[in-house]
From TrEMBL:
Keywords assigned by UniProt, alphabetized: DNA-binding, Transcription, Transcription regulation
Protein species of origin: Flavobacterium supellecticarium
InterPro entries listed in its UniProt record: Homeodomain-like_sf, HTH_TetR, Tet_transcr_reg_TetR-rel_C_sf, TetR_C
Domain (HTH tetR-type): residue spans on this chain: 5-65
Residue ranges flagged as DNA-binding region: 28-47
Gene Ontology MF annotations: DNA binding
The protein, known as: TetR/AcrR family transcriptional regulator
């Protein structure tokens, strides 16, 4: 990796928690210079504008979450256990290397739904990929006889996402982790009963 790429990566890593916590509109250039210790010229010498930084940061945060999930799933043998990684990871998200500020999909969807089409599109692609990945795991579990044959894979994939993202919203609004524990227990029951 050359010096320019190292600098870009440094900017992404240092500003990722800021964007994910404050959002695109809430993050100022001053926030970026403070987080990185770089000047405005150094930041814009590596990125065209704040939009380009924000998109790179969103990809970075999405990859961070995806890597955590992929590693956890790879360690499990059964498809049920692979799905149970989700409540385990999201119940103890503070113990894992989740992006500061919460779920990048939820954060971006709330802020960029009508105001920033490129961020919205990136979050949408990540959400649909997540749904397809869950649908795949459920269908493989059905093939292996782990889940009931009548289980609707896509319907349950959507329910899993809704429970996880709903728990993220509850934590953000109330600050109470016990709500998250209750929702993750509901998610475990859903997975066990597939």
């Amino acid at each position: 990796m050359g010096k320019a790429e190292k600098t870009r990566q440094f900017i992404i890593e240092k500003t990722a928690p800021v964007f994910n916590s404050k959002g695109f509109w809430g993050t100022s250039l001053q926030d970026l210079t403070y987080a990185t210790g770089l000047t405005k010229g150094s930041i814009y010498g590596n990125f065209k504008n704040k939009d380009e930084v924000a998109l790179a940061v969103l990809e970075h945060n999405l990859n961070k979450v995806s890597s955590l999930v992929i590693r956890a799933i790879a360690e499990k043998k059964s498809y049920r256990d692979k799905l149970l990684c989700y409540p385990d990871l999201y119940e103890d998200f503070a113990k894992h290397d989740f992006p500061a500020g919460g779920c990048p999909i939820l954060n971006t969807a709330i802020e960029a739904d009508d105001t920033h089409p490129p961020l919205k599109e990136t979050a949408k692609k990540a959400l649909l990929y997540w749904k397809d990945s869950l649908t795949y795991l459920i269908n493989k579990g059905k093939e292996k006889g782990e889940f009931k044959p009548e289980t609707d894979a896509e319907e349950n994939a959507l329910a899993i996402i809704a429970l996880i993202e709903g728990s993220r919203m509850m934590i953000k609004l109330t600050g109470k982790l016990n709500h998250n524990r209750s929702i993750m227990q509901t998610l475990r029951k859903l997975i066990v009963e597939l």
